[in-house]
Amino acid sequence: MKGGKSKTESKRGDAKLAVNKKGAPAKARKPAGKGKAAKDPNKPKRPPSAFFVFMEEFRKQFNKEHPDNKAVSAVGKAAGAKWKSMSDAEKAPYVAKSEKRKVEYEKSMRAYNKKQVDVYLIKFFIIAILSWWHGSLGLLFIVLMCFCFCWLMSGGRSYWWR
Questions:
Q1: What residues form the membrane-spanning segments (predicted)?
Q2: What is the Cα–Cα distance from 155 to 162, expressed in whole angstroms?
Q3: SS3 for 46?
Q4: Model-level pTM?
Q5: Within 10 A of 58 (CB to CB), how many other CB atoms are there?
Q6: Which domains does the chain have, with CATH numbers?
């Protein structure tokens, strides 16, 4: 037959489509990438939403009423059902607590970002001095521009100009 496959060829199948069995060699894993960047432990945590503020109180109450329950999913389902059945007036205290925590978070983030800008200003200043010392004026210009940009991003004030 022209262009046709014999019975033995069609039974073999394609090696790429074959199912990996016990005796077959395992596929090679992808090389490990850089992965996620390390989180800064000093960075403030994001504030919880109104529902999660509600969950803090509901979890304590639910565990008192159902001490034998060990399933986390049961607590979540019960809390979700209760949250949906609550009116806006009943949700208001949790929303207020959530907004208060959000304001505190934004305040701490401003302080954190200001501190980060100050650290970058110091680094740029050191690089500017080193590039000037080694005589590379092009690099000095770029570093000074970055320095000015960071200074402006900090609102024109920094630890050094208080």
A1: 117-133, 139-160
A2: 12
A3: coil
A4: 0.55
A5: 19
A6: 43-161 (1.10.30.10)
Compute CA distances 89 → 36, 79, 86, 93, 95, whole Å. 42, 17, 8, 8, 10
d(CA 12, CA 9): 5
Please state, in angstroms and as integers, the Cα–Cα distance from residue 44 to each residue in 1, 34, 104, 111, following that order. Answer: 73, 24, 10, 10
**pLDDT at residue 41, rounded to an integer:** 86
Instruction: Tokens 């509600």: give the residue.
Output: 54
Per-residue DSSP letter, 17: G
Pick from 53, 156, 62, 40: nearest CA to 102: 53
Instruction: Give tens-digit pLDDT for 120-133.
Output: 777 777 777 766 66
Distance set, CA 109 to CA 39, 61, 118 (Å): 15, 32, 14
